[in-house]
Design goal:
Blueprint lengths: L5 E5 L8 H13 L2 E8 L12 H23 L9 E7 L3 H12 L3 E5 L13 H9 L4 E4 L9 E6 L6 H21 L2 E8 L4 H6 L5 H22 L7 E5 L2 H12 L3 E5 L5 H6 L3 H6 L5 E5 L14
Parallel strand pairs: 1-2, 1-4, 2-3, 4-5, 6-7, 6-9, 7-8, 9-10
Antiparallel strand pairs: 5-10
Length: about 300
């Protein structure tokens, strides 16, 4: 993301605070970006109206869209004078994530902003299916907004995998850092570079009696530190703002975010789908549950969404 010109803010009727809209307005005021406020509506009782004529079904849809358009206009009214361009859009669709992604494909939005909210206390996942679909399938960066404020002189974390030398990972790392620095400009914040690496495998000390875990840990840490500092040097980040931690990234990233009271975590996601996503997930999805601040998930260069306009 080089510049922020077009924002797609997802409106959630269940979110009384309209966090996504407020965050979009904050960014638009700093960037002069346009905002499209998208509300996707659907009434499941529509599925039960097969006894009605097509004309009656169309009327039902049209009435609901018109009603929600009036509501959306009322929601947007207080913000209209705060930004240069704010466009309401209400669409009927049974699968919100498909509607969102198709609008991104049609109109080339630079950023999707969506609010999150907690579900039942005993649910381990606090994100809706739409959130997960967007993280995995949306071609544009997805900013998931929580309750954390964005004061000036804050902290932004760029979470990278510094030691991976595969080209797509290297390119993704650079993109994460550049995006974090861009948002640091918007927030007048400081960019922190965070790299996590795995601990020493316990089985090695059992299977190889001559194995020296202390020397191994030192060598691994040194390798990750050197790799992290190389990224920092390339992007003009001071070493004092680099953090290299041993452990699982989904835990450590949140620990660091809480420790420095970060406003934003920028991460990369490979957009895994299907069975592997259901069983394994990825770092983005694991850390989202516990994050106490906004999370911006970006895709690798060349990512192609499985949702296409041909589906229409």
């Amino acid at each position: 993301m080089k510049h922020l010109k077009k924002i797609l803010a997802i409106i959630d009727p269940a979110d009384e605070e309209q966090k996504s809209l407020k965050r979009a307005v904050e960014l638009a005021q700093k960037t002069n970006a346009s905002i499209t406020a998208l509300l996707v509506v659907y009434d499941f009782s529509y599925e039960m109206t097969t006894m009605l004529s097509q004309q009656e079904r169309d009327l039902m849809r049209r009435c609901m869209v018109e009603e929600r358009t009036v509501w959306l206009d009322e929601i947007l009214a207080p913000f209209a004078c705060q930004v240069s361009q704010l466009h309401p859009l209400v669409e009927w669709h049974s699968r919100p994530f498909e509607s969102i992604i198709k609008h991104v494909l049609r109109e080339d939005f630079d950023l999707i902003i969506k609010a999150t909210h907690k579900h039942h206390l005993f649910h381990s996942v606090i994100f809706t299916p739409t959130d997960w679909h967007l993280i995995r399938k949306a071609p544009a960066p997805v900013l998931l907004v929580k309750d954390h404020a964005w004061p000036e002189n804050g902290q932004v974390i760029a979470a990278i995998n510094a030691a991976n030398e595969e080209k797509h990972h290297v390119d993704l790392n650079h993109s994460i850092i550049e995006t974090a620095q861009l948002f640091s400009e918007y927030l007048h914040a400081k960019t922190h570079l965070l790299n996590c690496y795995p601990g020493t495998p316990v089985n090695l000390t059992v299977e190889l009696p001559e194995f020296d875990p202390t020397q191994y840990r030192h060598a691994i840490r040194q390798h990750h530190e050197n790799s992290t500092y190389q990224y920092a040097e390339k992007h003009g980040i001071n070493e004092e703002n680099c953090m290299v931690k041993e452990g699982l990234p989904q835990s450590l990233i949140n620990d660091v975010a809480k420790e420095i009271d970060a406003e934003l975590i920028v991460i990369g996601t490979v957009g895994r789908t299907g069975l592997s996503a259901a069983l394994l997930g990825n770092t983005a999805e694991h850390l989202l549950d516990a994050a106490n601040c906004d999370v911006l998930a970006i895709k690798p260069a060349g990512f192609v969404s499985p949702i296409t306009l041909d589906d229409e």
